[in-house]
Design brief:
It contains 15 helices and 31 strands. It is an alpha/beta fold. The chain has three domains: 192 residues, Phosphoenolpyruvate Carboxykinase, domain 1, CATH 3.40.449; 276 residues, Phosphoenolpyruvate Carboxykinase, domain 3 (Alpha-Beta Complex); 76 residues, Phosphoenolpyruvate Carboxykinase, domain 2 (Beta Complex). Helix 10 packs antiparallel against helix 11 and helix 14 packs antiparallel against helix 15. It is globular. The structure holds sulfoacetic acid (SAT) and manganese (II) ion. Manganese (II) ion binds next to loops.
Length: 602
């Protein structure tokens, strides 16, 4: 029988002892957390390889991770979450600012003092008999001006091992802080995983996050959505930069010319696939490399262009649907040193999920641990099952990921999952119209958040779940940023998910999305003209490269980009309701733009 005690045993000499010294505020905060949570052990992480090996071994002994078949998947582990803890929970996610007004109608608000008191009550003695891990990390390359330091205090070894993949974790973070640097305080406890005691709380004015009751990615890996987007967006607004829910890629032409592209799609709409795209054979000589797959931090550069970094160091991607056709580079990225959560486990220590290559296994144990066979009525993997993989595994990782000044963005793309109305690709008229396009985008909801699956909701800039302040002020910030940019990126809309009358996707998607990207790049270079319509510039069929596409000709393309005024009238009506909710905070330019657009699509 293995010993499942949740305290760390036989800690090797030198590990767990790296208590930060010389930053009085940090030390005082850690001491407060210890007093409050009363852990049985405190383990100070240093980010070393030896520490990783030790914590993995301990997580296995505790029964939290299961090693996978090391011949097939070296360095990989399997994990199951609590069945009620499988996604972000927007209704339990709060922004706690002094006034409710500051967070606007799209966020859940709580009074900071009241919320703090409630959380502190729950955290009193919460780590009795448990280990407290102190995790220093950086979001962003070591020497970037935009990089933020965070320290996450958690009682979950799973969180520590995931944070190690997703951020630049380790003592370099303390070095960057020096004696008095600003850092994000993140206190996390799983408590008893009771959804009644689950709260993900942000205190932007204190650069602080307190999260209890969940061990799931977006709720518990505090550097990711909590710091890099909710707190990050609020900091960015105050300091004049942007924190966005965007992938970042580099597209290099056969002549060696590079363009950097940022794209905002909601969770589980293919950001990871697009960021790792492999151009189809017809595009021989083109190369796409990945800078990031989820989050971009951007600022105006001295040349008036917009520069972006990826604050993350790993991919927390959706497993179902990932395969060698949809995303070969992701498949290679997750072949080693990866943590799999809530997928299915096969008898030979491999993983499986719906949409993985090959036939389903004859038998497996599903994400709940129940016996599963291909004729079982339930899915083997949870629809929001995930992989956590280090970016360095990505065969097409861009070397620019570590560049402290970031990459200059040529184009911003907004996209969502839309069965109708939104064409395959189109271009806005200018920054303000592009901001309007982002502000009015909608998407059918996915399994990345609990509830509402398939419903169309407005998700401006894919930031509805992640904007840490008033959406109206956020739109205004976009307009302000545009004024700072002498050479702003061009702004486009895309939709890979349009369906025909029979409910079939009209566009083949995946690698073929290169064709839309190529048109975007041609537009950036002023190489092609476009059709002007009320919603923006649409591609002319003759400029859009369809060569080498099987069973897809100009007539199909015209369906994919068809301008549908009736659909837009509905979209703009929805946008109007949304804008009205934002009240006085809504920038007048965008309200006026909506009226103009409504008239234009009549
Ligand atoms: O929120 S997570 O980071 O866990 C995943 C997502 O919804 O993008
Ligand atoms: Mn995301």
């Amino acid at each position: 029988m293995s010993d499942k005690s949740i305290l760390l045993q036989s800690i090797p000499e030198g590990l767990g002892t790296h208590k930060p010294q010389g930053h009085a505020k940090l030390s005082a905060w850690i001491d407060d957390c210890i007093k409050r949570c009363q852990p049985a052990q405190v383990f100070y992480c240093d980010g070393s390889e030896a520490e990783k090996k030790f914590l993995e071994k301990e997580a296995v002994r505790m029964g939290i991770l299961t090693p996978l078949n090391q011949d097939k998947l070296p360095g990989c582990f399997y994990s199951r979450s609590h069945p009620n803890d499988v996604a972000r929970v927007e209704q339990l996610t709060f922004i706690c600012t002094p006034t409710k007004e500051a967070v606007g109608p799209t966020n859940h608000w709580r009074d900071p003092q009241e919320m703090r008191a409630k959380l502190m009550g729950m955290l009193d003695g919460a780590m009795k008999g448990r280990v407290m891990y102190v995790v220093p990390y950086m979001m962003g390359p070591k020497d970037s001006k935009l990089t933020q330091v965070g320290v996450e205090i958690t009682d979950s070894i799973y969180v520590v091992l995931n944070m190690r993949i997703m951020s630049r974790m380790g003592e370099a973070a303390y070095e960057r802080l020096g004696a008095d640097g600003d850092f994000n305080k993140g206190l996390h406890s799983t408590l008893d995983l009771n959804p009644e005691r689950r709260f993900i709380c942000h205190f932007p004015q204190d650069n602080e996050i307190i999260s209890v009751g969940s061990g799931y990615g977006g709720n518990a890996l505090l550097g990711k959505k909590c710091l890099a987007l909710r707190i990050g967006s609020a900091l960015a607004q105050r300091q004049g930069w942007m924190a966005e829910h965007m992938l970042l890629l580099a597209a290099e032409s056969p002549e060696g010319k590079k363009h950097y592209i940022a794209a905002a799609f909601p969770s589980a709409c293919g950001k990871t696939n697009f960021a790792m795209l492999i151009p189809p054979p017809h595009f021989a000589g083109w190369k796409i490399t990945t800078i990031g797959d989820d989050i971009a931090w951007m600022e105006a550069g001295p040349d008036g262009r917009l520069y972006a970094i990826n604050p993350e160091a790993g991919y927390f991607g959706v497993a179902p649907g990932t395969n060698y056709k949809s995303n070969p580079n992701a498949m290679k990225s997750i072949a080693r040193d990866t943590i799999y959560t809530n997928v299915a486990l096969t008898p030979d220590g491999d993983v499986w999920w719906e949409g993985k290559d090959g036939d389903p296994p004859a038998e497996a144990s599903d994400w709940l641990g129940n016996a599963w066979a291909p004729d079982s009525p339930d899915k083997a993997a949870h629809a929001n099952s995930r992989f956590t993989a280090p970016a360095r595994n990505n065969p097409v990782l861009a070397p620019e990921v570590d560049d402290p000044k970031g990459v200059p963005i040529s184009a911003i793309i907004f996209g969502g999952r839309r069965a109708s109305t939104v064409p395959l690709v189109f271009q806005s008229f200018d920054w303000e119209h592009g901001t309007f396009l982002g502000a009015t985008m909608g998407s059918e909801m996915t399994a990345a958040a609990a509830g509402g699956l398939g419903q169309l909701r407005l998700d401006p800039m894919a930031m509805i779940p992640f904007c840490g302040y008033h959406m109206g002020d956020y739109f205004a910030h976009w307009l302000t940023m545009g004024k700072k940019l002498k050479n702003p990126p061009l702004i486009f809309g895309v939709n890979w998910f349009r369906k025909d009358e029979q409910g079939r996707f009209v566009w083949p998607g995946f690698g073929e999305n290169m064709r839309a990207l190529k048109w975007i790049i041609d537009r950036c270079e002023g190489k092609v003209d476009a059709k002007e319509t009320p919603i923006g510039h649409l591609p002319r069929t003759e400029d859009f490269d369809l060569e080498g596409l099987k069973d897809f000709g100009p007539a199909d393309f015209e369906k994919a980009i068809a301008y549908d005024p009736a659909g837009w009238q509905k979209d703009y009506a929805l946008a109007g309701e949304f804008f009205a909710k934002l009240g006085e905070h809504m920038p007048k330019e965008l309200s006026a733009r909506l009226e103009k657009q409504k008239a234009a699509v009549k």
